[in-house]
Every structure is written in structure tokens, then in C-alpha cells.
Amino acid sequence: MDVSRGSALVLLGVGLFVATMVVGAATAPSGSAGGVDAPATPAPSPDDTAAPSDPDATAAPTGTPSSDEPQTLVGNQGGWVTHGSVIAFDGRSVAWRNTQADGYFEVSRLDNGTVLAAFANESSEDCGDLSAPCARTGYRIIEPGSGEILSEYSFPVGSITNSEVHAADATGDGGIAYVDMDAERVVVVENGTEVWEWRASELYEAPPDPASRDWLHINDVDAIGDGRFLVSVRNANQLLIVERGEGVVEVINEDDGTSDANCLSDERLYDADGDGDVRCGDPSVIKEQHNPQWLGDGAVLVADSENDRVVELHRTDDGDWEPVWAVDRAGGIQLTWPRDADRLPNGNTLIADSRNRRVIEVDPQGEMVWNVSVGAAAKYGPGIVYEADRLPYGEYAGSYDGGSTPTDADGTATEGGAATSTKTPLPRMTAANGSAALTAPDDEIPLLSEAVAGLQGTFAWVPIWFGELHLAATALGLLFVLVGGVDHLLAARNVSLPGRE
């Protein structure tokens, strides 16, 4: 029996797709199916290291729990701000969860045991001056165990996309600091009232209406003591130390004039005078980062998201910052868009590996010693994890030590204030540790990388090992099926195509 050309193309396309999926699954690292169970070796924490909301260092962690049954608090974005949840794990078992938001982001446990969680909802009728329905975003206080929402501070925004409150952090004196991505500012709230703000337009060139575009995408704020905050400006590839009453006192990954084109692409930074000169950090150091952690003594740990790695930066003698330690894979799997990294008291690092839908703990050499699948634990949606805290420590910070002297937008210098050295630095890494190159390569494949990210963030059934080459092979297979199907139908109607005699 002769097989028509159309039928052959259909069979070829189906065969290519099946082979792609079978080979991809067969060659996927074992870490994608649950990982390893090797326990980490607990070690004492640094003396006098402060707990998350304890700027005076009156409370000190005493050690890391056994890695086979740790308590881990996770902020799960879900999909692209759909099916969000706060999930508390005992080991790899879910202890409790809250699913009452389209997206949850940064989460942390407060001193009284309740949970602070940044969130966003796509549709609300409580819209103030905006037309209903609108999106609404802010932070919540959640009762652990029951998952009950005890209180909420939120406000309306025009769109849930690129306007969400991604981070909120206790200041240690009763306030909550949060990042208002819609207006690109950092805000401190006390008793439900805004008491302080820092607007990014004080440093960066601002568009006429900052809320009209995804201008800076400020995505994190951490209180680091003495009225100072560590702020992540994603679209500038930069971290800032902002001090109440002073403004910006240090810029991490300062603009050196060589990377402006990177930050001007996709309408990220705004060039008000059109001279092509903006405040853009070197993307090979950090690129579109999330959730930095101040380690103390001129060291910061960063989820270097668009470079698909976690990196530790140290301040050099001349005030610059350089990578000294990096991890880009664990359990045989390449990190994919990690968005949180916390240094633990035993020297290990907890990582929220977002598009791989997992939380992992790695040792100083980058070897995975524990992991949990958020994708498997999420009730709905893909389970794209945003942030994770190891309890009882959370993401606490070392003392700020003064830093360098940056230049403000008006060209004047702002002196860094004296630090209050109340906290011992967290464990630091060196180039002798880690498992990745210190200079990040630009290995994205145009269009294909964005398409893979979109699929993984939309469909829970897309496997984490599914990458650009798998997508290209799948698309080619579908093309064969489509062309073959059309050819077969036309042949059945005696319509000839080129090549058919």
C-alpha cells in the first residue's frame, strides 16, 4: 500500500514530536523527579545575627534544622498572576496554604508568628478614582495554620501586569515597607498610614506618567537597619541602599556607560533628553534581578534572574561590586529564572527556582542537599514560585557598613552615614566555591526563550525540562503535520500541489 506524500509528512511530524518528548523525558536529570534527600550538616549560626524584624539583634538563630524536615514558607505566584498561593511546608508535606489571591509574591513570618504576604488580584470593584473593574494589590497579614486573612492594606491599579506589589518587609519598629511598582516608589506604612516614601524619579529619568509603562519595575525592599533599605530596581540591573532622610547612599552595579542599550531595549528605562545615556548596570553582573539579601560587610546575595543563576557580589576596595560566587544549576537541572536566594546560617543557600517550580537548598559548592516541588504541591496552576523563606530565620540581613558615595540625579554627592554594627555578617562565599562562571553569558534564543517562558507560566502540564530546542522540534513537527494534512486533503479532491505529478 502506497503512502501519500501528505500522509508521510503527517507521520513524520507526529514521529518527530513523540521522539522529542520521549528523548527529552529520558534524558532529563533525576532532580526533576523529586531530587535528592541527602541532609545538610547543621552548623551554628553567627553569634548575634538578628532575626528578620530584629534590627537591634536581640534575638539570634541557634542553628539550621535537619534538612530532611525543614519548615519552609513559600510565596507562589501560580501562573502569570493566576492561581497564587502561600504554602507552608513541613519537609515536603504541605502544612497549610492560602489560595485567596490571583498572585502571591514575597512572604515572611513576623515576630508574632503571623505571615506577611504581598499579593495582587486581577478584578475588584473597589477602584477609587479608577474605572471598575480594576486590579488591586498590596499586602496581607495571614494567620498560619488556618490561612485566614487577618488584615489587608491594598490599593487599586489600572492593570495587574507590572503594577503589583511584589515585596513587603517589616521595618522592625512596627512599620511595613513595601514597593509600589505602579508609581515606582518605596513606602513605609505605620498603623495603616503612609509615613515615608522614596520616589525613584529622584535618581532615574522619569516618563511624564510613570504608571503608563513598566518603567523601572522596582521589585524588592528589605529593611537593613538604621533607617536604611536595600531596594531592587529590576529594569536598571541595579540595587540601591536608600536611607530615610538622605536618599540613595549607595548604588550596586553602578552605570559605567557601556550598558545603556541593554536597559533602553523593550522600553525599560526612560531617556528623557534622548541622549542615550541612562543609569544602567552591567547585565553580565546582574540582569533583571529579584530579592537581594544584604549579607553584611559589603556583600550581597542576588537572584540574578535573567542570567539564570544566583550570584554573590562583594564590594571592592575602589567601591565597585564584583561577582565572587555563582550557582547556575542544581540536581543536574539548569536554574531557570530564579527569583529569590537566602543565605542560611549553616552556609547553605535557599533558592526559589521559579520556572522550574521548585525550592532548593544548595551547599557552598552548589550541590543540592534538599528540594521540594512547588508545582506538585500547588492545587491549581503551574506553581511558579516567587519567594521562599526557611523558618524560623527568614531573610535577615547583616549590618550596613557605610558604602561608597554615589552621585545623585542632580550631580551632587550623597555621603553614606555611619553604620551601627549590631549584627554579625552571614556566611560569605568565595570564588573557590560555587559551580558557575562569574561572568554571566547571554545565551537566550530570541523568540524561542520568550515562548518557552510563556508556555511554562500558562500550562501546568509543560515539563520543566522543556526548552528552546524541544519547542523548535515540536514546532517543526506541527508544521509537517499541518502541511501534510493540507496536502492529503487536496490530493483527495484531485488538486495538485507543486511536486505532485
**CATH homology group of the largest domain:** TolB, C-terminal domain
Shape annotation: globular
Helix content: 10-25%
Q: With helices defined by DSSP (H or I, 4 residues minimum), what is the helix count? A: 5
Number of domains: 2
Q: Bin the strand percentage.
A: 25-35%
* Spatial strand order of the main sheet: 3-2-1-26
Residue-averaged pLDDT, rounded? 85
The total of beta strands comes to 26
Low-confidence stretches: 32-63, 405-422
Helix/strand-derived category reads alpha+beta
Summarize the structure.
The chain has 501 residues and is of the alpha+beta class. Helices cover 14% and strands 33% of the residues.
Report on this structure:
By secondary structure, the chain is of the alpha+beta class. The protein folds into two domains: 5-24 and 467-492; 39-458, 6 Propeller (Neuraminidase), CATH 2.120.10.30. It has helices at residues 5-27, 260-264, 374-377, 448-458, 468-492, and strands at 71-78, 84-90, 93-101, 103-109, 115-124, 134-142, 149-157, 168-170, 176-180, 185-190, 193-199, 218-225, 228-233, 238-243, 247-252, 290-294, 299-304, 309-315, 321-327, 329-330, 333-334, 338-343, 349-353, 358-362, 368-373, 384-391. The strands form seven sheets. A four-stranded antiparallel beta sheet has the order 3-2-1-26. It has a four-stranded antiparallel beta sheet with strand order 4-5-6-7, with no helix packed on it. A hairpin with a 5-residue loop joins β18 and β19 (321-327). α4 (448-458) crosses α5 (468-492). The chain is globular, with a radius of gyration of 24 Å.
